[in-house]
Amino acid sequence: MLVAKREVYSYVEDNNVVADEKVKQIKKSNSSFKVKIFGLALLALVICLGVLFRYAQITQIKMEVSKLDKEIIELKKHKVDISLELERIKESGWIEKEAESRLGMVYPTDEQTVYIAVNDNAIYSIASNSAEEVNEKEGLDFLKLFSNLVGKISNKF
Q1: Which own/partner pairs from 41-45 qualify as long-range (CB within 8 Å, at least 24 positions apart)?
Q2: DSSP H or E segment with residue 31
Q3: What are the φ/ψ torsions at residue 4 (nearest 5 degrees)?
Q4: Are the C-beta atoms of 88 and 94 separated by less than 8 Å?
Q5: How far apart are CA 9 and CA 153, in angstroms?
Q6: Which residues contact 89 (CB under 8 A, 6 or more apart)?
Q7: How far apart are CA 141 and CA 131, in angstroms?
C-alpha cells in the first residue's frame, strides 16, 4: 500500500519564493535601466563633443579669414605706396635730379653745342631718287615674271 505523503505548505515560505522572484525581476529591470541610462549619457557625451569640435573648426576658419583680411589690407597699402613711388619716378624733375646726383650729368653749355645745317631739297631729292629706284626694280621683277609666264604658256601649245 501506498501511503500518500501529505505536503504541508507554509504561507511564509511561498511568500519568500514569490518575493525572491520579484527581487530577481527588479534587479534585472534595474540593470537594464542602468544600461539604458549609461547609453544615453554616452550618446549625450558624443553629441556634446561633436558640437564642441565643430565650434573649434568654425573658430579656426574665422581666425584664418581675419588673418587673410589683414593681409589684403596690408597688400592694398603696399600697392598704394608703390603706385605713389611710380608717379614720383615718372616726374621729369625727379629724373633730372637723379641724373645730376647719381650719374653726374649736366646740361651742355653753349660751347659744347654743335649746330648742323641741313638742306631740305637735298634730303627730298635723295629720298625721291631711292623711291624711284625701288619702283624701277619692282617693275623689272614684274616684267620678268610676266615674260616667264607667257613663255611657259606658249611652250605648252
Answers
A1: none
A2: helix 11-90
A3: -80, 135
A4: yes
A5: 145
A6: 95
A7: 16
Place of cell 511564509: 12
What confidence tens digit (pLDDT) does each residue in 74-131 have?
999 999 999 998 988 888 888 888 888 888 888 888 888 887 776 666 555 555 555 5
**Rounded Cα gap, residues 6 and 52, in angstroms:** 72
C-alpha cell at 117: 645745317
Q: Helix 11-90 and helix 92-102: axis angle, to 10°?
A: 80
Q: Is the pTM of this model over 0.70?
A: no
CA dihedral (36, 38, 40, 43) positive or negative: negative
Answer left, alpha or beta for residue 42, where phi above 0 means left and psi between -120 and 50 means alpha.
Answer: alpha
Q: Report the distance separating Cα 79 and Cα 141, nearest Å.
A: 59
**What is the phi-psi region of residue 104: left when phi exceeds 0, alpha when psi lies from -120 to 50, beta otherwise?**
left
pLDDT for 12: 47
> Largest alpha-carbon pair distance within the chain?
170
